[in-house]
Amino acid sequence: MSGEKRSEFDVAVIGAGMGAYHAVEEAAKKKDIKVAFIQGFTFQEWPLAACIFLNNPKEHEKWTSGVAETWQEKKWPNVTYFLSSVETVECEKKEITLMNKGPDAGARITYKALIVATGAKSPLIAPTPGMSLSERVKEVQACGQALKNAKTVIFNGSGLVGVEMCGDFRVHNGYGAKVILLSRSGKVLDSDYGEKSRKPDPAVVQKVTGILTEKFKVEVKHASVSDPTYTDAILSPGKLKLDNGETLDFDVYIPCYPVRPNTAFLTGGEGKQLLDASGAIISNECLQSQAYPEVFGVGVTTTKVPGHPVSARITIASQHCGKQALALLQGKEVQKFVDKGTPPPMDHPMNMKIGHGPGGYMIWSGLPGPAKICCCQCCGGGFPFCPPPCCWCCIPGCAHGCGTCCGPPEGEGPAIFMVGLLGKFPGSHGYKGLGNYGPEIPQQMRMS
Ligand SMILES: Cc1cc2nc3c(=O)[nH]c(=O)nc-3n(C[C@H](O)[C@H](O)[C@H](O)COP(=O)(O)OP(=O)(O)OC[C@H]3O[C@@H](n4cnc5c(N)ncnc54)[C@H](O)[C@@H]3O)c2cc1C
Protein backbone atom coordinates (compact mmCIF):
# COMPACT_ATOMS: atom_id res chain seq x y z
CA MET A 1 0.00 0.00 0.00
CA SER A 2 1.34 3.43 -0.91
CA GLY A 3 2.21 5.89 1.81
CA GLU A 4 0.20 8.62 0.12
CA LYS A 5 -3.02 6.70 0.28
CA ARG A 6 -5.55 7.50 2.99
CA SER A 7 -7.79 4.51 3.58
CA GLU A 8 -11.06 4.60 5.45
CA PHE A 9 -12.07 1.83 7.80
CA ASP A 10 -14.88 1.16 10.22
CA VAL A 11 -12.72 -0.52 12.84
CA ALA A 12 -8.95 -0.25 13.23
CA VAL A 13 -7.08 -2.60 15.56
CA ILE A 14 -3.48 -1.83 16.53
CA GLY A 15 -1.19 -4.52 17.91
CA ALA A 16 0.79 -7.60 16.94
CA GLY A 17 -0.15 -9.93 19.75
CA MET A 18 -2.99 -12.21 20.77
CA GLY A 19 -5.00 -9.23 22.03
CA ALA A 20 -5.18 -7.61 18.62
CA TYR A 21 -5.84 -10.96 16.91
CA HIS A 22 -8.89 -11.79 19.02
CA ALA A 23 -10.27 -8.26 18.69
CA VAL A 24 -9.99 -8.47 14.89
CA GLU A 25 -11.52 -11.96 14.94
CA GLU A 26 -14.57 -10.57 16.71
CA ALA A 27 -14.93 -7.42 14.60
CA ALA A 28 -14.44 -9.36 11.34
CA LYS A 29 -17.53 -11.43 12.09
CA LYS A 30 -19.64 -8.61 10.72
CA LYS A 31 -18.85 -9.04 7.08
CA ASP A 32 -20.12 -5.65 5.87
CA ILE A 33 -17.65 -3.62 7.90
CA LYS A 34 -14.07 -2.86 6.94
CA VAL A 35 -11.40 -3.74 9.48
CA ALA A 36 -7.81 -2.49 9.45
CA PHE A 37 -5.49 -4.87 11.30
CA ILE A 38 -2.37 -2.80 11.97
CA GLN A 39 -0.06 -5.60 12.99
CA GLY A 40 2.96 -3.41 12.51
CA PHE A 41 5.59 -6.09 11.88
CA THR A 42 6.64 -8.30 8.98
CA PHE A 43 7.14 -11.16 11.43
CA GLN A 44 5.50 -12.78 14.41
CA GLU A 45 7.23 -13.93 17.57
CA TRP A 46 5.60 -16.02 20.31
CA PRO A 47 6.08 -13.92 23.49
CA LEU A 48 5.75 -16.81 25.93
CA ALA A 49 9.04 -18.25 24.63
CA ALA A 50 11.03 -15.00 25.02
CA CYS A 51 13.11 -16.17 27.99
CA ILE A 52 14.14 -19.28 26.07
CA PHE A 53 15.35 -17.56 22.90
CA LEU A 54 16.93 -14.52 24.57
CA ASN A 55 19.14 -16.93 26.49
CA ASN A 56 19.58 -19.23 23.51
CA PRO A 57 19.16 -17.46 20.15
CA LYS A 58 19.39 -20.81 18.33
CA GLU A 59 15.81 -21.31 19.53
CA HIS A 60 14.55 -18.00 18.12
CA GLU A 61 13.51 -19.19 14.67
CA LYS A 62 11.48 -22.01 16.21
CA TRP A 63 9.21 -19.37 17.81
CA THR A 64 9.18 -16.90 14.91
CA SER A 65 7.37 -16.63 11.62
CA GLY A 66 8.73 -14.39 8.87
CA VAL A 67 6.25 -15.31 6.17
CA ALA A 68 3.22 -13.04 6.50
CA GLU A 69 1.04 -15.20 4.22
CA THR A 70 1.14 -17.97 6.81
CA TRP A 71 -0.57 -15.92 9.50
CA GLN A 72 -2.78 -13.61 7.47
CA GLU A 73 -6.23 -15.13 7.73
CA LYS A 74 -7.93 -15.87 4.40
CA LYS A 75 -11.22 -16.38 6.25
CA TRP A 76 -11.42 -12.63 6.93
CA PRO A 77 -12.15 -11.04 3.53
CA ASN A 78 -13.13 -7.76 5.16
CA VAL A 79 -9.78 -7.39 6.99
CA THR A 80 -6.80 -5.49 5.56
CA TYR A 81 -3.41 -6.10 7.16
CA PHE A 82 -0.87 -3.30 7.62
CA LEU A 83 2.69 -4.37 8.42
CA SER A 84 4.22 -1.03 9.35
CA SER A 85 3.94 0.08 12.99
CA VAL A 86 1.85 3.01 14.13
CA GLU A 87 3.62 6.35 14.45
CA THR A 88 0.70 8.48 15.62
CA VAL A 89 -3.00 8.33 16.26
CA GLU A 90 -4.72 11.68 16.25
CA CYS A 91 -7.84 10.92 18.23
CA GLU A 92 -9.50 14.25 17.37
CA LYS A 93 -9.24 13.45 13.65
CA LYS A 94 -9.65 9.66 14.11
CA GLU A 95 -6.60 9.25 11.96
CA ILE A 96 -3.67 6.86 12.19
CA THR A 97 -0.32 7.45 10.50
CA LEU A 98 2.08 4.57 10.11
CA MET A 99 5.86 4.80 10.51
CA ASN A 100 7.90 5.64 7.46
CA LYS A 101 9.33 2.14 7.36
CA GLY A 102 8.23 -1.28 6.17
CA PRO A 103 5.70 -2.44 3.57
CA ASP A 104 3.01 0.15 4.47
CA ALA A 105 5.36 3.03 5.23
CA GLY A 106 3.60 6.31 5.90
CA ALA A 107 0.08 4.98 5.22
CA ARG A 108 -2.80 6.96 6.71
CA ILE A 109 -5.89 5.22 7.99
CA THR A 110 -9.10 6.66 9.37
CA TYR A 111 -11.44 4.78 11.67
CA LYS A 112 -14.84 5.01 13.28
CA ALA A 113 -13.81 2.76 16.17
CA LEU A 114 -10.30 1.97 17.36
CA ILE A 115 -8.98 -0.90 19.51
CA VAL A 116 -5.51 -0.46 20.99
CA ALA A 117 -3.90 -3.80 21.93
CA THR A 118 -0.24 -2.87 21.87
CA GLY A 119 0.98 -4.46 25.11
CA ALA A 120 3.74 -2.87 27.14
CA LYS A 121 7.26 -1.67 26.48
CA SER A 122 9.41 -4.64 27.49
CA PRO A 123 12.95 -4.09 26.19
CA LEU A 124 14.43 -7.18 24.49
CA ILE A 125 11.57 -9.33 25.74
CA ALA A 126 9.35 -7.94 22.98
CA PRO A 127 10.47 -6.41 19.68
CA THR A 128 10.37 -2.61 19.42
CA PRO A 129 7.66 -1.25 17.11
CA GLY A 130 9.11 -0.53 13.68
CA MET A 131 11.74 -3.26 13.89
CA SER A 132 12.43 -5.42 10.86
CA LEU A 133 13.00 -9.14 11.28
CA SER A 134 16.73 -8.77 10.53
CA GLU A 135 17.02 -6.12 13.24
CA ARG A 136 15.19 -8.34 15.70
CA VAL A 137 17.32 -11.39 14.88
CA LYS A 138 20.49 -9.29 15.41
CA GLU A 139 19.13 -8.01 18.72
CA VAL A 140 18.25 -11.49 19.98
CA GLN A 141 21.67 -12.82 18.92
CA ALA A 142 23.45 -9.89 20.61
CA CYS A 143 21.48 -10.55 23.79
CA GLY A 144 22.31 -14.27 23.76
CA GLN A 145 26.00 -13.55 23.18
CA ALA A 146 26.18 -10.90 25.92
CA LEU A 147 24.46 -13.22 28.40
CA LYS A 148 26.79 -16.07 27.48
CA ASN A 149 29.91 -13.92 28.06
CA ALA A 150 28.63 -12.15 31.19
CA LYS A 151 30.19 -12.56 34.61
CA THR A 152 27.43 -10.59 36.35
CA VAL A 153 23.87 -10.35 35.14
CA ILE A 154 21.14 -8.23 36.69
CA PHE A 155 17.50 -8.95 35.98
CA ASN A 156 15.30 -6.17 37.34
CA GLY A 157 11.82 -7.26 38.39
CA SER A 158 10.99 -10.37 40.34
CA GLY A 159 7.63 -11.17 38.79
CA LEU A 160 6.88 -14.22 36.66
CA VAL A 161 9.08 -13.04 33.77
CA GLY A 162 12.10 -12.18 35.97
CA VAL A 163 11.91 -15.57 37.67
CA GLU A 164 11.63 -17.29 34.28
CA MET A 165 14.65 -15.35 32.94
CA CYS A 166 16.81 -16.45 35.88
CA GLY A 167 15.91 -20.09 35.29
CA ASP A 168 16.47 -19.96 31.54
CA PHE A 169 19.75 -18.14 32.06
CA ARG A 170 21.03 -21.07 34.15
CA VAL A 171 19.63 -23.64 31.72
CA HIS A 172 21.46 -22.16 28.75
CA ASN A 173 24.46 -20.36 30.26
CA GLY A 174 25.35 -22.50 33.25
CA TYR A 175 26.42 -21.48 36.72
CA GLY A 176 29.63 -19.51 36.08
CA ALA A 177 28.07 -16.04 36.28
CA LYS A 178 26.60 -14.18 39.23
CA VAL A 179 22.86 -13.61 38.73
CA ILE A 180 21.10 -10.88 40.71
CA LEU A 181 17.32 -10.57 40.66
CA LEU A 182 16.17 -7.16 41.89
CA SER A 183 12.93 -6.95 43.80
CA ARG A 184 11.20 -3.77 44.98
CA SER A 185 9.74 -5.57 47.98
CA GLY A 186 12.59 -7.96 48.61
CA LYS A 187 10.30 -10.85 47.67
CA VAL A 188 9.82 -12.79 44.46
CA LEU A 189 6.53 -12.71 42.56
CA ASP A 190 5.77 -9.26 43.90
CA SER A 191 5.14 -7.49 40.60
CA ASP A 192 2.91 -8.92 37.90
CA TYR A 193 1.96 -11.84 40.12
CA GLY A 194 0.91 -9.49 42.90
CA GLU A 195 -1.01 -7.10 40.67
CA LYS A 196 -2.81 -9.66 38.57
CA SER A 197 -3.77 -11.97 41.41
CA ARG A 198 -5.51 -10.93 44.60
CA LYS A 199 -2.57 -11.87 46.73
CA PRO A 200 0.51 -14.00 46.14
CA ASP A 201 0.35 -17.33 47.95
CA PRO A 202 3.04 -17.06 50.69
CA ALA A 203 3.79 -20.79 50.44
CA VAL A 204 4.49 -20.48 46.69
CA VAL A 205 6.56 -17.34 47.25
CA GLN A 206 8.65 -19.18 49.82
CA LYS A 207 9.04 -22.22 47.60
CA VAL A 208 10.08 -20.21 44.53
CA THR A 209 12.52 -18.16 46.62
CA GLY A 210 14.10 -21.34 47.97
CA ILE A 211 14.48 -22.92 44.53
CA LEU A 212 15.84 -19.72 42.98
CA THR A 213 18.39 -19.03 45.66
CA GLU A 214 19.47 -22.58 46.56
CA LYS A 215 19.13 -24.57 43.34
CA PHE A 216 19.59 -21.80 40.75
CA LYS A 217 22.11 -19.79 42.79
CA VAL A 218 20.34 -16.48 42.20
CA GLU A 219 20.78 -13.58 44.59
CA VAL A 220 17.38 -12.00 45.27
CA LYS A 221 18.21 -8.42 46.19
CA HIS A 222 15.80 -5.98 47.81
CA ALA A 223 16.29 -2.78 45.78
CA SER A 224 14.50 -0.38 43.52
CA VAL A 225 15.73 1.66 40.58
CA SER A 226 13.98 4.90 39.60
CA ASP A 227 16.53 6.34 37.17
CA PRO A 228 14.77 6.19 33.77
CA THR A 229 18.07 5.21 32.07
CA TYR A 230 17.47 1.74 33.39
CA THR A 231 14.12 1.25 31.73
CA ASP A 232 16.16 0.01 28.76
CA ALA A 233 18.26 -3.12 28.58
CA ILE A 234 22.05 -2.71 28.60
CA LEU A 235 24.14 -5.44 26.97
CA SER A 236 27.59 -4.04 27.80
CA PRO A 237 29.34 -3.58 31.16
CA GLY A 238 28.04 -0.75 33.31
CA LYS A 239 27.01 0.39 36.75
CA LEU A 240 23.49 0.35 38.12
CA LYS A 241 22.57 3.08 40.58
CA LEU A 242 20.03 1.86 43.11
CA ASP A 243 17.65 4.27 44.84
CA ASN A 244 19.41 3.67 48.17
CA GLY A 245 22.65 5.08 46.72
CA GLU A 246 24.34 1.72 46.28
CA THR A 247 25.98 0.90 42.94
CA LEU A 248 26.08 -2.52 41.33
CA ASP A 249 28.44 -3.51 38.50
CA PHE A 250 26.98 -5.60 35.70
CA ASP A 251 27.86 -7.04 32.32
CA VAL A 252 24.23 -7.34 31.26
CA TYR A 253 21.21 -5.55 32.70
CA ILE A 254 17.67 -6.41 31.60
CA PRO A 255 14.45 -4.92 32.98
CA CYS A 256 11.96 -7.79 33.29
CA TYR A 257 8.80 -5.83 33.97
CA PRO A 258 6.38 -4.01 31.70
CA VAL A 259 7.90 -0.51 31.65
CA ARG A 260 4.79 1.29 30.37
CA PRO A 261 1.89 0.59 28.04
CA ASN A 262 2.76 1.10 24.37
CA THR A 263 0.43 4.06 23.93
CA ALA A 264 2.80 6.99 23.36
CA PHE A 265 1.52 7.30 19.78
CA LEU A 266 -1.95 8.36 21.00
CA THR A 267 -2.59 12.09 20.99
CA GLY A 268 -5.73 13.86 22.12
CA GLY A 269 -7.15 17.33 21.88
CA GLU A 270 -6.36 20.05 24.37
CA GLY A 271 -7.88 19.46 27.77
CA LYS A 272 -8.78 15.83 26.97
CA GLN A 273 -7.66 13.31 29.59
CA LEU A 274 -6.57 10.52 27.26
CA LEU A 275 -3.70 8.87 29.16
CA ASP A 276 -2.73 8.76 32.82
CA ALA A 277 0.81 9.40 34.07
CA SER A 278 1.82 5.76 33.46
CA GLY A 279 0.57 5.88 29.85
CA ALA A 280 -2.60 3.85 30.42
CA ILE A 281 -5.75 4.92 28.54
CA ILE A 282 -8.10 6.48 31.08
CA SER A 283 -11.07 4.18 30.68
CA ASN A 284 -14.47 3.29 32.08
CA GLU A 285 -15.61 -0.19 33.06
CA CYS A 286 -16.37 -0.99 29.39
CA LEU A 287 -12.60 -0.76 28.58
CA GLN A 288 -13.53 2.38 26.64
CA SER A 289 -11.64 5.66 26.68
CA GLN A 290 -13.37 8.32 28.74
CA ALA A 291 -12.07 11.06 26.47
CA TYR A 292 -12.79 9.33 23.15
CA PRO A 293 -15.64 6.79 23.42
CA GLU A 294 -14.76 5.26 20.05
CA VAL A 295 -11.37 4.15 21.46
CA PHE A 296 -11.08 0.84 23.36
CA GLY A 297 -8.05 -0.74 24.98
CA VAL A 298 -6.91 -4.28 25.73
CA GLY A 299 -4.42 -4.56 28.59
CA VAL A 300 -3.47 -0.88 28.20
CA THR A 301 -6.28 0.83 30.11
CA THR A 302 -6.64 2.11 33.66
CA THR A 303 -9.39 -0.50 34.09
CA LYS A 304 -7.43 -3.65 34.87
CA VAL A 305 -8.26 -7.13 33.64
CA PRO A 306 -7.13 -9.16 36.64
CA GLY A 307 -6.62 -12.90 37.03
CA HIS A 308 -4.78 -15.85 35.56
CA PRO A 309 -4.05 -17.25 33.06
CA VAL A 310 -3.15 -13.80 31.75
CA SER A 311 -3.50 -14.89 28.11
CA ALA A 312 -7.09 -16.02 28.75
CA ARG A 313 -7.89 -12.66 30.36
CA ILE A 314 -6.39 -10.80 27.38
CA THR A 315 -8.36 -13.00 24.97
CA ILE A 316 -11.68 -12.33 26.66
CA ALA A 317 -10.99 -8.59 26.98
CA SER A 318 -10.11 -8.43 23.28
CA GLN A 319 -13.30 -10.20 22.27
CA HIS A 320 -15.21 -7.77 24.45
CA CYS A 321 -13.58 -4.78 22.73
CA GLY A 322 -14.30 -6.24 19.29
CA LYS A 323 -17.96 -6.64 20.22
CA GLN A 324 -18.20 -3.15 21.71
CA ALA A 325 -16.65 -1.59 18.62
CA LEU A 326 -19.40 -3.23 16.54
CA ALA A 327 -22.06 -2.10 19.04
CA LEU A 328 -20.78 1.46 18.78
CA LEU A 329 -20.97 1.37 14.97
CA GLN A 330 -24.55 0.13 15.18
CA GLY A 331 -25.50 2.84 17.66
CA LYS A 332 -26.07 0.29 20.43
CA GLU A 333 -25.16 0.74 24.06
CA VAL A 334 -21.63 -0.26 24.99
CA GLN A 335 -21.49 -2.99 27.65
CA LYS A 336 -19.48 -3.21 30.85
CA PHE A 337 -16.60 -5.71 30.71
CA VAL A 338 -17.36 -8.88 32.66
CA ASP A 339 -14.82 -11.68 32.50
CA LYS A 340 -16.76 -14.89 31.83
CA GLY A 341 -13.83 -16.53 30.08
CA THR A 342 -12.68 -20.14 30.20
CA PRO A 343 -10.95 -20.98 32.44
CA PRO A 344 -12.45 -18.38 34.79
CA PRO A 345 -10.08 -15.80 36.28
CA MET A 346 -7.91 -17.46 38.89
CA ASP A 347 -6.14 -15.73 41.73
CA HIS A 348 -2.87 -17.49 41.02
CA PRO A 349 -0.98 -18.68 37.95
CA MET A 350 -1.31 -22.36 37.07
CA ASN A 351 2.42 -22.74 36.98
CA MET A 352 5.67 -21.10 37.92
CA LYS A 353 8.33 -21.49 35.25
CA ILE A 354 11.91 -21.28 36.46
CA GLY A 355 13.50 -22.17 33.15
CA HIS A 356 12.37 -24.50 30.40
CA GLY A 357 13.67 -27.91 29.32
CA PRO A 358 16.44 -30.02 30.88
CA GLY A 359 18.00 -28.14 33.79
CA GLY A 360 14.88 -26.01 34.29
CA TYR A 361 12.26 -26.26 37.00
CA MET A 362 8.52 -25.80 36.97
CA ILE A 363 5.92 -25.86 39.70
CA TRP A 364 2.28 -26.65 38.98
CA SER A 365 0.80 -24.31 41.52
CA GLY A 366 -2.81 -23.48 40.83
CA LEU A 367 -4.38 -25.99 38.48
CA PRO A 368 -8.15 -26.06 38.10
CA GLY A 369 -10.14 -29.18 39.26
CA PRO A 370 -9.71 -32.00 36.69
CA ALA A 371 -6.14 -31.05 35.77
CA LYS A 372 -5.29 -31.06 39.46
CA ILE A 373 -6.33 -34.72 39.73
CA CYS A 374 -4.32 -35.64 36.63
CA CYS A 375 -1.28 -33.83 37.94
CA CYS A 376 -1.23 -35.83 41.13
CA GLN A 377 -1.95 -32.74 43.23
CA CYS A 378 -4.63 -34.56 45.23
CA CYS A 379 -3.00 -37.77 46.42
CA GLY A 380 0.55 -37.43 45.16
CA GLY A 381 0.27 -41.04 44.00
CA GLY A 382 1.09 -40.47 40.36
CA PHE A 383 0.87 -43.03 37.55
CA PRO A 384 -0.67 -45.67 37.69
CA PHE A 385 -2.85 -44.31 40.53
CA CYS A 386 -4.21 -41.42 38.48
CA PRO A 387 -7.59 -41.93 36.78
CA PRO A 388 -7.69 -42.48 33.00
CA PRO A 389 -7.25 -40.70 30.64
CA CYS A 390 -4.51 -38.67 32.39
CA CYS A 391 -1.13 -40.33 31.86
CA TRP A 392 -2.79 -43.51 30.59
CA CYS A 393 -3.71 -42.07 27.22
CA CYS A 394 -1.79 -38.86 26.60
CA ILE A 395 1.67 -40.17 27.30
CA PRO A 396 2.53 -43.83 27.84
CA GLY A 397 3.25 -44.16 31.53
CA CYS A 398 4.67 -41.38 33.65
CA ALA A 399 6.59 -38.78 31.64
CA HIS A 400 7.15 -36.68 34.77
CA GLY A 401 5.21 -33.86 33.14
CA CYS A 402 3.43 -33.40 36.47
CA GLY A 403 6.49 -34.19 38.56
CA THR A 404 7.88 -37.43 39.85
CA CYS A 405 5.38 -40.09 40.94
CA CYS A 406 4.58 -39.79 44.63
CA GLY A 407 6.40 -36.46 44.71
CA PRO A 408 5.11 -32.91 44.53
CA PRO A 409 3.93 -31.65 41.10
CA GLU A 410 7.13 -29.80 40.24
CA GLY A 411 10.70 -30.21 39.08
CA GLU A 412 12.66 -30.72 35.89
CA GLY A 413 10.05 -33.07 34.36
CA PRO A 414 7.37 -30.35 34.21
CA ALA A 415 9.97 -27.88 32.83
CA ILE A 416 10.72 -30.32 29.99
CA PHE A 417 7.01 -30.98 29.45
CA MET A 418 6.36 -27.22 29.30
CA VAL A 419 8.45 -26.77 26.14
CA GLY A 420 6.07 -29.06 24.24
CA LEU A 421 3.04 -27.45 25.85
CA LEU A 422 4.21 -23.95 24.84
CA GLY A 423 4.08 -25.02 21.22
CA LYS A 424 0.41 -26.03 21.46
CA PHE A 425 -1.06 -22.56 21.99
CA PRO A 426 0.31 -20.13 19.38
CA GLY A 427 -2.05 -21.21 16.58
CA SER A 428 -5.21 -20.53 18.55
CA HIS A 429 -3.97 -16.98 19.24
CA GLY A 430 -3.18 -16.22 15.59
CA TYR A 431 0.54 -17.09 15.61
CA LYS A 432 1.03 -19.32 12.58
CA GLY A 433 3.94 -20.51 10.51
CA LEU A 434 6.38 -20.42 13.45
CA GLY A 435 9.72 -22.08 12.77
CA ASN A 436 10.47 -20.21 9.56
CA TYR A 437 12.28 -16.87 9.30
CA GLY A 438 11.43 -16.78 5.62
CA PRO A 439 13.54 -15.19 2.89
CA GLU A 440 14.52 -11.99 4.78
CA ILE A 441 17.12 -13.78 6.88
CA PRO A 442 20.10 -15.18 4.97
CA GLN A 443 21.31 -18.64 5.88
CA GLN A 444 24.52 -17.32 7.50
CA MET A 445 22.48 -15.29 10.02
CA ARG A 446 20.61 -18.39 11.18
CA MET A 447 22.17 -20.00 14.20
CA SER A 448 20.49 -23.40 14.23
C1 LIG B 1 8.26 -14.39 29.00
C2 LIG B 1 6.76 -14.38 29.10
C3 LIG B 1 6.10 -15.51 29.54
C4 LIG B 1 4.70 -15.51 29.64
N1 LIG B 1 4.07 -16.64 30.09
C5 LIG B 1 2.74 -16.66 30.13
C6 LIG B 1 2.04 -17.84 30.51
O1 LIG B 1 2.65 -18.86 30.82
N2 LIG B 1 0.71 -17.82 30.54
C7 LIG B 1 0.00 -16.71 30.18
O2 LIG B 1 -1.22 -16.75 30.21
N3 LIG B 1 0.61 -15.59 29.82
C8 LIG B 1 1.96 -15.53 29.78
N4 LIG B 1 2.60 -14.39 29.40
C9 LIG B 1 1.80 -13.19 29.13
C10 LIG B 1 1.31 -13.13 27.70
O3 LIG B 1 2.35 -13.29 26.80
C11 LIG B 1 0.65 -11.78 27.51
O4 LIG B 1 -0.42 -11.68 28.38
C12 LIG B 1 0.14 -11.60 26.11
O5 LIG B 1 1.17 -11.74 25.17
C13 LIG B 1 -0.45 -10.20 26.00
O6 LIG B 1 -0.95 -10.04 24.70
P1 LIG B 1 -1.17 -8.61 24.07
O7 LIG B 1 -1.64 -8.84 22.69
O8 LIG B 1 -2.02 -7.79 24.96
O9 LIG B 1 0.24 -7.91 24.08
P2 LIG B 1 1.59 -8.32 23.33
O10 LIG B 1 1.75 -9.78 23.21
O11 LIG B 1 2.65 -7.54 24.02
O12 LIG B 1 1.36 -7.75 21.87
C14 LIG B 1 1.28 -6.38 21.59
C15 LIG B 1 2.01 -6.15 20.30
O13 LIG B 1 1.71 -4.85 19.80
C16 LIG B 1 2.88 -4.30 19.27
N5 LIG B 1 2.91 -2.86 19.21
C17 LIG B 1 3.33 -1.99 20.16
N6 LIG B 1 3.32 -0.74 19.69
C18 LIG B 1 2.88 -0.81 18.43
C19 LIG B 1 2.70 0.15 17.40
N7 LIG B 1 2.98 1.44 17.59
N8 LIG B 1 2.24 -0.26 16.19
C20 LIG B 1 1.97 -1.57 15.98
N9 LIG B 1 2.16 -2.53 16.91
C21 LIG B 1 2.62 -2.15 18.11
C22 LIG B 1 3.95 -4.77 20.25
O14 LIG B 1 5.24 -4.66 19.68
C23 LIG B 1 3.52 -6.20 20.49
O15 LIG B 1 4.08 -7.07 19.54
C24 LIG B 1 3.97 -14.36 29.29
C25 LIG B 1 4.66 -13.22 28.83
C26 LIG B 1 6.02 -13.24 28.72
C27 LIG B 1 6.75 -12.00 28.20
UniProtKB/TrEMBL annotation:
<dbReference type="InterPro" id="IPR036188">
    <property type="entry name" value="FAD/NAD-bd_sf"/>
</dbReference>
<keyword id="KW-0285">Flavoprotein</keyword>
<feature type="domain" description="FAD/NAD(P)-binding">
    <location>
        <begin position="9"/>
        <end position="302"/>
    </location>
</feature>
<dbReference type="InterPro" id="IPR023753">
    <property type="entry name" value="FAD/NAD-binding_dom"/>
</dbReference>
<comment type="similarity">
    <text>Belongs to the FAD-dependent oxidoreductase family.</text>
</comment>
<keyword id="KW-0560">Oxidoreductase</keyword>
<dbReference type="Pfam" id="PF07992">
    <property type="entry name" value="Pyr_redox_2"/>
</dbReference>
<keyword id="KW-0274">FAD</keyword>
<protein>
    <submittedName>
        <fullName>Oxidoreductase ptaL (Pestheic acid biosynthesis cluster protein L)</fullName>
    </submittedName>
</protein>
